[in-house]
Amino acid sequence: MKSSAVTIKELSSLSGYSISTVSKALNDKLEISKATRDTIKTIAKQHDYVPNSYAVSLRMQKTGAIAVIVPQVTEACYGHSLSHLQKSAEILGYRILFYQSFNSDTKELNYIKSLSDGSIDGIIVVSAENKQSSQYTGHSFPVELLVIDCNQSIEDIKQRSYASLMNVLKG
Question: Strand order of the sheet with strand 122-127?
């Protein structure tokens, strides 16, 4: 079944311009005249064109996604952390992919391994205990350990979560 999303190749066909020209126009390259850019953008808007996020992430070498691994989302302190991480990440233009380890170190490490495919920009591992940082090093992306004690205040959880997010984004 074919996707209903129009591609840049289809925009090229619809507009009569080359794929390269369409791409440059959509990315506001000044080498393309304003009239051509406007024409291509109008056609793109008419057909609800949405850039392919995978292609953009390959070009930019940035996915715009951060993975968060929590022990169990039903624990209020982890839910607060996840909620604040998502709100903060969205403000910064990132999305959160969320995983539950159910307090299993093996699950955590398996998630980290499977996410080494280039689909994320970093990982935040939320835990109740301070773990050996050597488990989280040696990856092509930052892995941050966020230790949360469920007796901490919500404000402290928010501050720690934000600090961890910023550490991951700094790389």
Answer: 95-100, 65-70, 122-127, 143-147
Pair 89, 95: CB distance under 8 Å: yes
Q: Please compute Rg for the chain using Cα positions.
A: 21
Q: Give the rounded distance of the alpha carbon of 100 from its chain centre.
A: 17
Q: How is 98-111 classified by DSSP, letter by letter?
A: EEE-TT-HHHHHHH
What sign has the CA pseudo-torsion 111, 115, 119, 122? positive
Q: In 71-161, which ranges are E strands?
A: 95-100, 122-127, 143-147
Helices 19-26 and 8-15: angle between axes, nearest 10 degrees: 110
Among 86, 170, 94, residue whose Cα is nearest residue 126: 86
Mean pLDDT, range 75-87, rounded to an integer: 96
Q: pLDDT-based confidence at 116, cuts 50/70/90?
A: confident
Where does residue 168 fall: left (phi above 0), alpha (psi -120 to 50 degrees), or beta otherwise?
A: alpha
Taking the model in full, what pTM does it have?
0.70
Task: Give the relative orientation of helices 34-46 and 19-26 as an angle to the nearest 10 degrees.
Answer: 90
Q: Which amino acid makes up residue 32? A: I
Note the pLDDT tens digit of each residue in 31-71.
999 999 999 999 999 999 887 766 665 566 678 899 999 99
